[in-house]
Write a structure and sequence with these properties.
Length: about 300
Amino acid sequence: MNFPSQWIAEQWGISPYTQVKLLYTLIVFLLFLIIRFFSIRILLKNVEEVKDRYYWTRAIKYTSMALFLMIIVLIWLSELASIATFLGLVSAALTIALKDLIVNAAGWLFILVRKPFSVGDRISIGEHRGDVIDVRIFQFTLNEIGNWVDADQSTGRIIHIPNGRVFLEPQANYTQGFSHIWNEIGVLITFESNWEKAKKILEDIVNQHGASFTKSAEQRLIEASKKYMILYNKLTPIVYTAVKDSGVMLTMRYLITPRRRRTSEQLIWEDVLRMVADNEDIDLAYPTQRIFYAPEENKE
């Protein structure tokens, strides 16, 4: 027994055999850190796509962690056999104490295998909506949209959600499957307006801005129908007519990709405002009050 080993054994009660195991463990740990560091650096230099970088970085980290644990088990295998009973008791206690962590890890496996969503998808879970920007063992991360920001645009906040929430709350995926959503814009015009003329103009407007998405939506629908029971008889834009308290409601319905919704609404509303400005027989309606005075209306 050399001097450092003897001194450690005397001071801390660690046997020379255990000291060798600890030394091997430290060497393996440092080697894996170095290998992982240079692997990620090489990856970042050779892969430009952000999404590919994310997936490959995660793969390197998880693979190195798994290999490290396997080697550590092999190093300490003989020691582990002597404390099997102790570990059994400890594992039972940890299962109770770390219940939430275990549920979150199970949720992570569910996300990887079942894929209710993946990085880059726009989802809604519970009261939160956003784009998935990271998925880890215990939580996934959203770049929040909506909330106090009008329409589906980023608030700038990052939300970390425990993976176990996927077992407790429904998730809506804006991107997966069909990948298009139906959007509706209602234009309320007065009863005195030429509603037939307005409807024809609105049909031209919504076809101009929404028809380009119909072809891609049809292809997406064919692909989605192979996995989900999705069936639409009509994908082309349409304008519906209804009567409301303050006037005639003309509702434009069209398909759009989730991230283009606000932009499309802006372009359509600009054309609607031009329509009202260019046509004297079409006026936008708003809540009003009317006083009925019988003599002036030639009524008793």
